[in-house]
Amino acid sequence: MANGPGLACRSLHCTDTWCEIARTPRGECARCLRGYTAFTETAEPEEVLDFLREYHGALGPLVSQYEGTLDQFSGDGIMVFFNDPVPCPDPAERAVNMAVAMRAAAGTLIADWRERGRDLGFGAGIAQGYATLGQIGFSERSGYTAIGTVCNVARPSLC
Asked: Residue 137 maps to which CATH number?
C-alpha cells in the first residue's frame, strides 16, 4: 500500500461492496469520561444511559462542526478521525481545536453532574500519523474505520 494520501471511499456506508483500503495521514482524537467505570458500577443502567445521551448530545455536534469523521461510540469513548473520507489540509489542528471545544462543552456537563453527586471528568488524547482505512466486519454488519498505531496512541491513559 502506498504511504501517500488517498481517498478510500466517499461514503461511510459502503453496503454493496467493500471499499478499497487506503493508507492516509490523519489526526485522531479519542475522548472519554474519567471516573466512568466507577460510576457505572454504582449507577442503574438507565442513569448511565441518560448520562451518555447528555454527553454524546453535547459533544457529537462538535464532530461535524470541525469536519471530523465519527468512527465510533463505545460507552463513554468517542473516536474521531480527520482527513477521510473528505481530505483536509490540517487534520491535527482540527483534532486539537475540536478537543478544546469538547473540553469546554464537557465542563458544563461535569458541573451539572457534580451537583447530582456524580464525580466524572473529561479526557482527550490526540495523535497524528498514518492509518489504514476501510471496511471491517462481515456480510451482515460492517463499518468503515481506521486501523493503525495512530489510533492506538490516541487512546492510552485517557481515563
From this structure: 3.30.70.1230
